[in-house]
Write a structure and sequence with these properties.
It holds the Pfam family HTH_48. Helix content is about 60%, strand content about 0%. It is mostly helical. The two termini are about 40 Å apart.
Length: about 120
């Protein structure tokens, strides 16, 4: 039995897929080996097959590509304002902060408060 590698970087797993695919290892066997080393939750068999198809189509980058999407509204100034509000009232609730900062989701507020 091999030692399990916990929390591998995505590019690490993709590099292994690319390496084994280059050696003509079948996707099912690649998935079996990934699960053996990285654990059950590493990646589904379908995702391995998707990556193998991409590498066979000429895709060579193992890193996530920059995606356009909704830009984050959270910046240092906003976090500073949030910290100021928290210092004003130490008995704050996330609901109270949601009322003060409606542009930030409840989940993101919770994450900011937890990490401060």
């Amino acid at each position: 039995m091999f030692k399990i590698i916990a929390n591998p970087a995505d590019c690490e797993v993709c590099s292994v897929i690319r390496f084994l695919n280059t050696k003509n290892v079948k996707p099912a066997e690649i998935h079996r080996q990934l699960v053996e080393i990285y654990g059950e939750n590493v990646m589904t068999d379908g995702m391995v097959r998707k990556w193998v198809r991409q590498y066979n189509d000429g895709h060579t980058n193992v890193h996530d590509e920059v995606r356009s999407g909704r830009p984050s509204i959270v910046n240092d100034a906003l976090v500073a304002k949030l910290n100021e509000k928290i210092r004003e009232n130490r008995r704050f609730t996330i609901r109270m902060l949601c009322d003060e900062f409606p542009q930030i989701s409840k989940t993101v507020l919770q994450e900011i408060v937890t990490n401060c």
